[in-house]
Amino acid sequence: MMKTVIVMQGISGAGKTLYVTSYYPEAVVVSANNYFTDTFQNYRFDRRFIQHSHNQCLSHFNSALEHGKELVIVDNTNTTIDEIEAYAKLALEAAGYRVEVHTILEDPEVAHARNIHSVPLHAVMNQHQKLESSLKHMRQSWHHSFVCV
Predict the structure, then answer these.
(1) Residue 56's domain spans which residues?
(2) InterPro entries from the xrefs (predicted)?
């Protein structure tokens, strides 16, 4: 199997984590949300630490690549090209990694109703707008596909 990085893309509540845990149980999964989850799996988001959580996620991602893990998945919203690019560039620079972007499209109101992190509707709508815009600019080297949960 070729070493692969999958960058998940989808608004909060779209089902990214469900998709990842259902189809890729053997993967190394990195997520900014992990920073806000304690040892008892309680999620406590604090906006003051959002940048730190993403830095930590990127650090764990780099570590997985450096250790040559076969399958590494980034389970964040990644609604902009720049957010995807941060991971894709590192993966492509690492020897032998294929980059895939798996996008889950979901109605923002449906996603808002089921998101478990209490993301407000206006923020989910904003994510949706950014995601829609990003679809026009996907890099060919990223092997983009739409997936369903």
Answers:
(1) 4-106+117-146
(2) NEDD4-bd_p2, P-loop_NTPase
Which residue from 114, 116, 112 is spatially nearest to 124, judged by alpha carbons?
A: 112
Number of domains in the chain: 1
- For the chain, list residues with pLDDT below 50: none
Write the CATH number for 51.
Answer: 3.40.50.300
DSSP notation for 112-139: HHH-TT---HHHHHHHHHHHHHHGGG--
Please report whether residue 47 resides in a domain: yes
In-domain check, residue 111: no
Write out the DSSP string of 62-129: HHHHHTT-SEEEE-S---SHHHHHHHHHHHHHSTT-EEEEEE----HHHHHHH-TT---HHHHHHHHH
Q: Is residue 70, in this structure, part of any structural domain at all? A: yes
Sheet with 28-30, edge to edge strand ranges: 28-30, 71-74, 4-9, 98-103, 144-146
Mean pLDDT of the chain: 93
Whole-angstrom CA distances from 128 to 13, 60, 125, 134, 140 are 11, 27, 5, 10, 22
Give domain status of residue 112, yes or no.
no
